[in-house]
Amino acid sequence: MSESTVTVYVTKYALSGGITKEAGCTIKNGYATRGEFCSGTYLFVKMGRDAFLTEAEALQRAEAVALAKLKSLTAQKNKVEKLVTHGFPIKEGRGPK
Fold first, then answer.
1. What is the pTM of this model?
2. Cβ–Cβ < 8 Å for 10, 40
3. Which of the residues 1, 23, 34, 37 has the least number of beta carbons within 10 Å of its own beta carbon?
4. Does residue 58 carry a pLDDT above 70?
């Protein structure tokens, strides 16, 4: 019996390499896997989290991940700015045992 193949849009590394369109993949147990004729480099990705069947869903996920990353980076930036403007705290070390 022949398995049908689909094209999936992989967002696993969207922030570093963009969205990858993988053709010829099969979907088993909620994961997209490379079939015999798959064009891509990803062997095993989770559908609905790292891979999607439509370009629109993939773009929506990539945008959500990018916004979460920006929020995280903003929080880190604010923490460092606070240290620079208000001074670095000096804490007592534990000393020798």
1. 0.75
2. yes
3. 1
4. yes
Which three-class secondary structure string do you get for the chain? Answer: CCCCCEEEEECCCHHHHCCEEEEEEEEECCEEEECCCCCCCCCEEEECCCEECCHHHHHHHHHHHHHHHHHHHHHHHHHHHHHHHHCCCCCCCCCCC
Model confidence pLDDT, tens digit, residues 21-40: 988 888 888 888 876 555 55
Q: Which of 32, 35, 33, 29 lies closest to 2, judged by CA?
A: 35
User: Is 4's pLDDT higher than 70?
Assistant: yes
Question: Residue 5 contacts by C-beta under 8 Å, 6 or more apart in sequence?
Answer: 23, 24, 25, 26, 35, 37, 38
32, two tokens: 């997209």
1: confidence class by pLDDT, cuts 50, 70, 90 = very low
